[in-house]
Amino acid sequence: MSNEKKNLSRRDFVKGAATGALVGAFAGMGMYSYTPWSYDRLPEVQRKQHDFGACRSIRITNISETSWFNNAHLIGDIHEAGGLLVNQYTLNWAPFANGKGSAMGSYEDGISTIKDLIPHDIEKAWDIQKKLALHPENPGGYSCLIEVEALDGSMHKYLLDTGWSYSWMNDCFKREGVDQMLRDQQIEALFISHEHWDHFWGLPVTMKYDNRIPLYVHDGFYKEGLQYIKDSGYKGEPVIVNQPVTEIAPGVALLKFNVPIINRVFGETSLAFNIKDKGLVLVSGCCHQGVLKFADFAYANLKYDQDRFYGIYGGLHISPFEDWDPKYDDLVISLGEWDFERIGCNHCTGHLTAKKFIEAGYPVVRGTARFRSASKDYLGNGDKITFGV
């Protein structure tokens, strides 16, 4: 985002809707949020502009964005167990199922059935859990491979998240050659965006191929999640992210957000990349912090080329269950104020949201709807996107 647009865009994007809500029916239509007089009520942003260097380009391969295959089964299981505040480890989903039914699971019971098998025999472990779990065919997972070209031309590979189903993720890793990259220790780090089932529970699949890969997790992980890292066969010491900005490499930074998430999960980390001569690229797993907060934090805290937002990729958490609320239209409108040149969305963005982006004329990179992805309106399983080339 350029300096000349920063005040208008930032205020519109972050707080316009909240200000507009005070003026009654007109605000209810989302109109006041986008009028000039609403901006005068908002404070100026004090930008820290943390300089984290630059890289030449990045390429992202969508290993899997299909976290589950049936919304009704997922929502029904959560509802039956007691709702959104229920501890995820009690839901009786694989790999922490004990066969006792809804809300009767526990980390200890579930892991005891497979602990001796992971990570070396994930196939057998998953088969055991399928016999104990609710809706055992529903899990999929979210994971992407990020390849960063440094300014000196060297290439660096990272994983964001490791999915859910051992079986599904192992097949996806093999499809994209990630299994061999891990064996050869070509992947320099694994970032777990947050502790949710579909981003984290597939950890033994990564551990099967490289159990010493540098591993980064949010400091809000619960004791079960930290224990699972050990029980999955990890032989290193995870990096517990406790700072707002963690530099990973020139042009690569990990951003930490403290936010409560459904099913007793806390906190999310996302990635930022400064592409030389192009600008900032934001990459998220689920973006539970909200796309507004994500962009606002980056604007306020990071220094990036051309002082503009260049691209965004990942789950943006707008219509994850393919429903639509009129308030989401404010998010669609607001996204345009940041003037992204390339938008790659999938997963919990929802394909309805992707369609709205396209209808709004945004530069959405479309996919191929292969490997059980639901729509060509977003980047599906096996699809790729590049920034800076």
Automatic annotation (TrEMBL):
Give the subcellular location: Periplasm
Any keyword rRNA processing? Answer: no
All copies of domain Metallo-beta-lactamase, residue ranges: 156-223
Membrane-crossing ranges are 12-34
Q: Which GO terms describe its molecular function?
A: iron-sulfur cluster binding; metal ion binding; transferase activity
InterPro entries listed in its UniProt record: Metallo-B-lactamas, Metallo-beta-lactamase_dom, RibonucZ/Hydroxyglut_hydro, TAT_signal, TAT_signal_bac_arc
**What's the superkingdom here?**
Bacteria
Fetch the Gene3D superfamilies from UniProt: Ribonuclease Z/Hydroxyacylglutathione hydrolase-like
Q: Which keywords belong to this entry? A: Iron, Iron-sulfur, Membrane, Metal-binding, Transmembrane, Transmembrane helix
Q: Which NCBIfam families match?
A: TAT_signal_seq
Note the subunit structure. Heterodimer of a large and a small subunit.
In Swiss-Prot or TrEMBL terms, this protein is called: 7,8-dihydropterin-6-yl-methyl-4-(Beta-D-ribofuranosyl)aminobenzene 5'-phosphate synthase
Lineage, top ranks = Bacteria, Pseudomonadati, Thermodesulfobacteriota, Desulfovibrionia, Desulfovibrionales
